[in-house]
Structure formats: C-alpha cells, structure tokens
Amino acid sequence: MPELPEVQAHAERMTEALAGKKLDNFQLLNFASLKTYSPAPDEAVGAVLTEVTRRAKLLQLRFDNGQVHVVHLMQGGRLRPDPKQTKKPRLGLARWVFEGNDAWLFTEAGNERKAGVWTVAGDPDVHPPLLETAPDCIDFTLEQFTELCSSHRGRVHGMLRDQRKIAGLGRMLSNEILFDARISPFANASKLSDDQVATLYESMRSVVAGSIEHERTLDDIGKSADRPSKVHNRAGEPCVDCDDTIRTVE
User: pLDDT by residue (tens digit) across 173-229?
Assistant: First the structure.
C-alpha cells in the first residue's frame, strides 16, 4: 500500500499538473467506489482545482467551491493521467476530466475492491474516512510521541501502523524505522526507555524524510518492491550493517 511518502509526492505531482484548471466532467465508472452520496461529486464540475494535498495515506483534490474529493488508494489503487479516455477502462473506478481535456483515471488492481472516493464539503478531517485518523507522523513532537509510546501497551510495530494512533506509516516504513532505531518490532512500546523513544522518533523523521525525497525523483507511484529499503522485502539477503542474513519473523 502506498504510504505517506508515495502519496505526498504524488499529491505534489498532481498539483503541478492540475492546479488552476476547471473540472469539466466527473465520471463514476464503478458505483461501489463512491463512498458518499452528499455532496454529489459532480457538484465540483465548473469549479477550479486549487491544489491536491495529502492527509495520512489519502489524496485530497481541493476545489474552489469548498468541495474536496478524498481518494483512498488502498493497496492497488492508482490515479494517473488518462489520455485515451476509453469508455470502459480496465479496472476503472472514476475519472476526472479537467479543462483542456486533461483526464485522470482512478483504477484499482487486485481483488480487494477497497479503494474509493469520498466527497466532502469543508474540512475533510471531520468527515469519514479521516474522522478517526490520528495526526500525521511527521507532525508529532517528541513530547507527543513519547506520550503515545507510554500509553500503548502493545508491540511498537503495531502502534506505528495504527492510523488511529499515528498516521501515514505502513508495514514497510515501520520495518525500516525500527531497523534504523535498532528496536525490535516485538518490543512493548510502553516499556521503551526515554532514550529508545527519542531514537525511534528521530529514526521515524529521518526515514520518512528520506523516502519523501526519493519519491520526488519519480514520475509516478512505483511498486512496493521497487522502493529502497534495508530490511523490508530483503529476507535472505545479507544485512547492510552486520552481514548476517535477514530473516522474516512473524
């Protein structure tokens, strides 16, 4: 699943391509992918896209009439330019057509069928699907992160991936952050020492920042297997630090 860095970079790419353009048409290609009924997404037709932002792992298409289209890519969703605009595109969920016939197609590969579009008026944070989402990981202060760890009486890996506690991280980033901090994914978050919490916090900020910079060099959201990593998806390979073999643990 695309995590904060992938979605952040893609939001920036979309803003660069589309900001200032009027929405000429919205086409719902798969009824089940629209998760809200009011306001209707075509109420944004005629409005100008001001920017595309990111919150947690979601894209937010913001229009100058106050409507926001929140797009959750989930595991297999992608939102890309659609120059062909075929009538029934394979895997198509929705299509936005901006002035100049600049179309963008929302697709979902795989069998999960969880990707979707929510339309909201005003602040998306007070509406589903973001209503119960925690602050973004990059917005936590050390004090807030320390409080989070001390209150979570469970595995630190699970805490990092829980979007209701800290948003934007998934399996890959959590693995990389914990490796960088030299903390076991099975460690109880509430039992980490102050030094461990501080190290984990700095590792989180460093790993996420580095991943964002990498994603900004790309033209699109890539495959998870292609993302730079030291341990994630590296089982069987030598460790970059100690030359021992990387192993998968459950």
Answer: 999 999 999 999 999 999 999 999 999 999 999 999 999 999 999 999 988 778 889
Place of tokens 């970079």: 9
The token duo for 86 is 């075929």
Q: Among 102, 46, 44, which residue's Cα sits nearest to residue 68? A: 44
Residue that is written with structure tokens 């076991």 in the block: 184
| φ and ψ of 249, to 5 deg | -125, 145
Alpha helices in the chain (DSSP H): 4-18, 142-151, 156-161, 171-181, 194-215
Domains of the chain: 4-126 (3.20.190.10), 137-226 (1.10.8.50)
The torsion angles phi and psi of 242, rounded to 5 degrees, stand at -125, -5
Structure tokens at 167: 């948003």
Structure tokens at 55: 């919150």
Q: pLDDT tens digits, residue range 45-102?
A: 999 999 999 999 999 999 999 999 999 999 999 999 999 999 999 999 999 999 999 9
CB 167 within 8 A of CB 133: yes
List, in sequence order, every beta strand (DSSP E) within 15-111: 23-28, 49-55, 58-63, 67-72, 77-81, 92-98, 102-108
SS3 content of the chain, % helix, strand, coil (to 5): 35, 25, 45
Q: How far is Cα 203 from Cα 199, in angstroms, rounded to an integer?
A: 6
**What's the predicted TM-score (pTM) here?**
0.95
